[in-house]
Amino acid sequence: MSHHLFVLSPSDTPLYSLTHQSTKPVPSATSPLASNLPTWSTSAFAGTLTALSGASSATQHTSSGAVRVGGGQDRHVIQMIANAGLDVIEDVMRKETAMYLKSVDKFNEWTISAFVTPGNTKFVLLHEGKNDEGIRAFFMDVWELYVKVNTSSMYIGDANGQQTMLNPFHTAHSTIRSSVFDNRVRASARKYL
């Protein structure tokens, strides 16, 4: 099962993105539209139709040996789905005061979950399965890491002697390029997703 995280600034500028392939078991589900598409191997637009339908041009093998269709969309299609969900996120933000907005939208097998910080930074997660508690815990970890990136100190050691990056030069609209941030978000994704 794949997960796609996007961290967006208050002005919806991309700050960070992550694609994570989970090793946890996935309930098998296929898109009804994908199963009805003809297999056009010579068509110039077959890849786009397949990607938009929720199908994958390449099959994926699960740990149980089953073959599964879906989740192999091109990067631009994933970004399009996430961007399309921003309007729904804005609507939900007007109605709810919670930071974790749970599942705000769905596109074929992709569910869009969102978390909005008090500074209006948006964490958008595209995922295929239902894991509300794991996603909430993941968002809380990512938020804590994001706050550390935006805090005004340099490097400090944590209880394990590892360095945590607290960058005085980072602004809310700067792309996050910290390898420490990336490694810790990946570790959190492995733990919760």
Automatic annotation (TrEMBL):
Q: Which GO terms describe its cellular component?
A: cytoplasm
Q: Name one Pfam family in it.
A: Sedlin_N
According to its UniProt entry, the protein's GO biological process terms are: endoplasmic reticulum to Golgi vesicle-mediated transport
Superkingdom of this protein's organism: Eukaryota
InterPro entries from the xrefs? Answer: Longin-like_dom_sf (IPR011012), Sedlin (IPR006722)
Q: Which CDD domains match?
A: TRAPPC2_sedlin
Q: What is the designated name of this protein? A: Trafficking protein particle complex subunit
Source taxonomy: Eukaryota, Fungi, Dikarya, Basidiomycota, Agaricomycotina
